[in-house]
Design brief:
Layout (H helix, E strand, L loop, with lengths): L1 E5 L5 H11 L5 E4 L11 E7 L3 E11 L13 E12 L5 H20 L15 H8 L4 H12 L3 H18 L7 E8 L1 E2 L11 E2 H4 L3 H18 L4 E9 L7 H14 L7 E7 L6 H9 L4 E4 L6 H7 L5 H13 L5 E7 L6 H14 L3 E6 L7 H4 L13 H13 L3 E6 L10 E5 L6 H8 L4 E4 L4 E9 L5 E7 L4 H6 L1 H11 L4
Parallel strand pairs: 1-2, 1-3, 6-9, 6-16, 7-8, 9-10, 10-11, 11-12, 12-13
Antiparallel strand pairs: 3-4, 4-5, 13-15, 14-15, 17-18
Helix pairs in contact: 1-2, 3-5, 4-5, 7-8, 7-17, 8-9, 12-14
């Protein structure tokens, strides 16, 4: 493990995130208090904040044997001093101080590991917000490049990607009335099975089949509140996600969408997405229901077109089912279909990825979302890592370059991007789309410029205040619904009360 001791609690998250990016397999402990750890310590780092300086010193610990612990007696470990660094800072400018600290730490980690990171010292999950803000300030591409290079030490390729996406997002978001508009998320927390890599709160349908209608009863109650509260606002986009919304039976899908259509004024709605998701949950009858109600955008998500990988990760559907679901959707007239892929799945080679992309190219989707595998604590691959320690999970810039080249062949252009903790290769997720087919909701949730009201178990509502802060940002507050389906059903009045408090002055 890596131990980082601070003389006072400042910038703990930033330090932890940056070190973790270089050492994803290591446990990183960052604290202003000395702690006892069960794991052996490989690196000790000390961060000292002075009146106008920040100093970092660190040591590499060479252990006498594999069983050595962090509390070894003197003489059982060899300590190697690693060159440290001290910088002058002005603590009154917190943002600049944070950036200076990260630049120093990044240089030291690069020197120690002999490698760089594609995003430099940038650890945030929404990198496109940076060029977006600069574009809104009237900055040129050259000025944006220089700022991101000097401040975050990002690679030329990532700066270009982020700036390209920010420009596309900026053009699309001009259609959105932030002050008088909002978007709606509806969560369906059921899945056929739980995938090996998944950390989302979802429930196997087989265990909850008899309570789905009760869940929809509670959900409709929350929808009624939302419709009444925001009747004077313009609804710009709707996204039904999960879980897997198409685990619902056709009559249940019909009931849900009918409720939405009858409750809201959709005259300003630019996009209505249903995450059809797993092919083993999709039937012609369900797609006919979606088509009947005028759903404008759907997702059919294979994650990979390699059958052995699908079997390994617990998807329990075939490649043939993916192809068949896609073809039925096209037959029914859907002209905006997204497909999700994941880079870094267990035991997949670069040639496997190439073969998947070749098969996807034959289907000609309108959107392609490429995810870098991110293992959260709740994922089975992480919770039971000893059981899967022999699996190779590799994602590199070569993988992402390959997906980008195939997207270009399909006339798909990058339009949104985000990052996650624990992401394979410290890379990113990128959404590609044909011209005019970019997912509006995806952009809105990443750029955090509009209120998103979320209904359903585990759903998170995000209120964005219209009034801007002095630095041009906007105040954002959230309220969460309980994740447990049973609790959501029983406590639906409380979920509504949480929203009432959040939007009390609306």
């Amino acid at each position: 493990m890596i131990e980082v001791l601070l003389n006072k609690p400042e910038f703990e998250y930033d330090i932890h995130s940056l070190i973790k990016a270089f050492f994803p397999e290591q446990y990183v402990g960052v604290s202003a208090e000395k702690k006892e750890y069960d794991e052996k310590i490989d690196i000790r780092m000390q961060v000292n904040y002075g009146e106008d300086t920040i100093q970092i010193t660190w040591q590499e610990i060479m252990h006498a044997n594999e069983d050595a612990q962090a509390n070894e007696k003197p003489g059982q470990e060899e300590v190697k001093e690693i060159p440290g660094e001290t910088i002058q800072v002005d603590f009154s400018d917190r943002v600049r101080t944070k950036n200076q600290l990260k630049q120093m730490l990044y240089r030291m980690l690069c020197d120690y590991t002999k490698r760089t990171l594609p995003w430099g010292n940038l650890t945030g999950i929404r990198p496109t917000k940076i060029p977006m803000k600069l574009l809104e300030e009237g900055k040129s591409r050259e000025e944006i490049y220089r700022y991101m290079k000097d401040t975050y030490l990002a690679s030329d390729e990532k700066i270009e990607l982020a700036t390209d996406i920010a420009e596309r997002e900026n053009a699309i978001l001009k259609k959105i009335d932030y002050d008088n508009g909002y978007s709606l998320y509806i969560g369906i927390p059921f899945c056929p099975t739980t995938c090996l890599y998944c950390s989302f709160t979802s429930y196997p349908l087989v265990s909850w089949k008899n309570r789905v209608d009760a869940y929809l009863d509670a959900l409709e109650k929350e929808i009624d509140y939302t419709a009444a509260k925001f009747y004077h606002k313009h609804l710009n986009s709707i996204y039904i996600g999960g879980g897997t919304p198409t685990t619902l039976e056709p009559y249940q899908l019909d009931r849900l969408i009918r409720k939405i259509k009858c409750s809201f004024d959709l005259s300003d709605c630019l996009e209505f997405t249903v995450e059809a998701g797993r092919p083993d949950s999709i039937t012609r009858e369900k797609l006919e229901v979606l088509r009947k109600w005028g759903i404008t955008r759907i997702s059919i998500n294979p994650q990979t077109m390699q059958q052995r990988t699908l079997d390994l990760i617990g998807r329990r559907h075939s490649v043939e089912q993916t192809v068949e679901s896609f073809k039925i959707a096209r037959e029914l007239g859907f002209d905006d279909i997204n497909m999700d892929l994941i880079m870094g799945l267990p035991e997949e080679s670069l040639e496997d990825v190439r073969d998947t992309l070749e098969q996807i190219m034959q289907l000609k989707p309108d959107n392609l979302t490429v995810h870098s595998l991110a293992l959260k604590r709740a994922a089975r691959l992480n919770m039971f890592k000893e059981d899967y320690k022999d699996y190779k999970m590799v994602n590199t810039q070569e993988h992402m370059d390959l997906t980008a080249s195939y997207a270009k062949k399909m006339d798909l252009f990058p339009y949104y991007l985000y990052r996650q903790k624990g992401m394979a290769g410290n890379l990113e997720n990128v959404g590609y789309a044909k011209e005019g087919k970019a997912g509006v909701y995806n952009i809105l949730i990443m750029e955090e410029k509009q209120t998103i009201v979320a209904c359903g178990a585990g759903a998170s509502t995000k209120r964005v205040w219209n009034e801007s802060n002095p630095d041009g940002t906007h105040r954002i507050e959230r309220c969460e619904n309980v994740k447990d389906v049973g609790q959501y059903i029983e406590r639906i009045d409380e979920m509504i009360e949480r929203k009432q408090k959040l939007f009390a002055e609306e």
